[in-house]
Each structure stands twice: as structure tokens, then as C-alpha cells.
Amino acid sequence: MKNIFLALSALFLISCNSEKSKENSLSVSENETEINSDSIASCSPRITERNSENGLILLTENQQKELSKKLKKLTPGLPIIGVLMYDNVLTTELTAPIDVFTKLTEDGKQLFNVITIAESYDFIVSEEGLKMFPDYTLANSPKLDVLIVPSAYDMSLQVKNKNLVDFIKSQNTNTEYTVSNCAGATLIGESGIANGKKIVTWIGGGVALKKKYPNLLVQDDGKVSYMEDGKFLSSNGNLASYISSLELVEKLSTKKHRKFVESYLYLDRLQEWK
């Protein structure tokens, strides 16, 4: 099955290997455009403009307070998988882990709590235009057993967002695994939690990642689709996010459950399709 995913990553990782991503992803280089102080402090100042462009309405302060009282219920005793969300996130890097970890066992048992987390209660609009809403915020998120860090084409605001970076640092003290997909590796590098550990990023992004974060052991993204080093797992992103998710679901459950999830996803049909 690993051969399947190597083929998938080679065929389908267009988004993280596109010219757009080469120009914008990991935009933390020496030529980085200056960002105003408000944006550096938080991604929130983009919300008003983004919502206006996408026909959305900002929540009132009272609505946000009400939401904070009605959190998504968690099943006691089950591991909590937290998936970060932010502006222009790549849709597949959210849906892949959610797709894998929400699957019940063959006999219908839930194995994991899966939640999404954003900086505030507001609509997130993905790179592809999908409108989503988080279950929790950075402030009220529970302690996670697994933190999954996706990417956007342009990560410059995310790596300068102290709230986001501090959240990753804080959760790392209790996570059993921390996963990055595609340019999510920049946030791992910025947080410093994986210094001295092997990591892989989007195809073509390794050189810039290594230059910016020399303490990371950046792998050859032209050859490596998935990497694990201790509690840190990483992938090229996009459809390769299924690799990191399936590898981890096997670690947290059984090989049998992984095979069941793979069958549920019709991966064999995708392999055979031409």
C-alpha cells in the first residue's frame, strides 16, 4: 500500500508543487514582503476583508460568547485529534485527517474525538473557496493527543502569528504525536519543537525550509513523501496527507483498522483508475 501512496503523491501533489506554491509557500525568505504590525500580531485583521469578499457576515461579540458555551461534545476516554485551521488553508490537508480519523471500526465503534481549531470563532475560507467553521479556538481548545498542522500557499502570516506558534508549543507538551503536512512544516520550524528531528515538506520547499530553520533535519522532498522521527510525522501534503493520517491511525489503533479505513476510502479503485 505504501507503493500506492508514493504513486499518488507523484501524480497528484500538484498544488504543493505548483508555480504558485513555489512563489508563495514558505514566504519567509530574505525577500519577504513586509507585513503590518497588526497582521504580524494576529491573522484576525484579515477577517473583515475576507468575509466581505466571500459574502460572509462577521459574528457579533455576543454570538461568539454563546458559541464558546456550546462546544462540540467529546467522548470521554478517547484520544483527541486536533486539526488546525486558518486563512487559505489547503482543503485536502484538513479533509484527509478528518476523513481517516472519523471512520468507525468495522463493528461500528468510535476510536477518536476529531476537532477543528482556529484562532477565533469565524468562518475559515480555504484556498479552494470552501467555507468552514471551527469547533474550538486556540483559547478554549482541550489538551490534544494529536495535533495536525496543515498549510496554506502563503504561510507568512501564520509563522508571524504568536498566538498560533505559542499554541503549537503549548500543545506539544502533552501531544503523543504532532503532524505537519506540506508547508505546515514552517510552523513546526518556527515553534522550535522539532529541532534536531527529521522532517519533510512540499515538493520543492525543502531548500527554503532548511535555510530558514537550520535546526530541522530537512529531508529530500523529491524522494521522500512521508517522514517520521519520534513523535513528529510529516508529509508533502495535499493527497500525501492521507499517508501521514493512515500511518498514524495504524499506530493509534491496529493494522486491521487501517486496512478497513483504506477499503472504506476505495483506495484500490484509485490505484486501478487510469
For this entry, give a set of tags:
274 residues, alpha/beta, 7-stranded mixed β-sheet, 39% helix, 14% strand
Descriptive account of the structure:
Strand 10 and strand 11 form a beta hairpin. The two termini are 17 Å apart. The protein is globular and about 50 Å long. The chain has helices at residues 2-12, 19-24, 37-41, 46-53, 61-69, 91-101, 156-159, 162-172, 185-191, 206-212, 241-252, 255-264, 267-272, and strands at residues 80-84, 113-118, 124-125, 131-132, 136-137, 146-149, 177-181, 198-199, 217-218, 226-229, 232-235. It has 274 residues and is α/β, with parallel strands linked by helices. It has a seven-stranded mixed beta sheet with strand order 5-2-1-6-7-11-10, sandwiched between helices.
Q: In one word, what is the shape?
A: globular
Radius of gyration: 18 Å
Average of per-residue pLDDT values: 85
Low-confidence stretches: 4-43
Strand arrangement within the widest β-sheet reads 5-2-1-6-7-11-10
Number of helices: 13
**Helical/strand content category:** alpha/beta
Amino- and carboxy-terminal Cα gap: 17 Å
Overall number of strands: 11
Report the sheet with the most strands, covering strand number, pairing sense and barrel closure: 7 strands, mixed
Strand residue content: 5-15%
Amount of helix: 25-40%
Order of helices and strands: HHHHHEHEEEEEHHEHEHEEEHHH
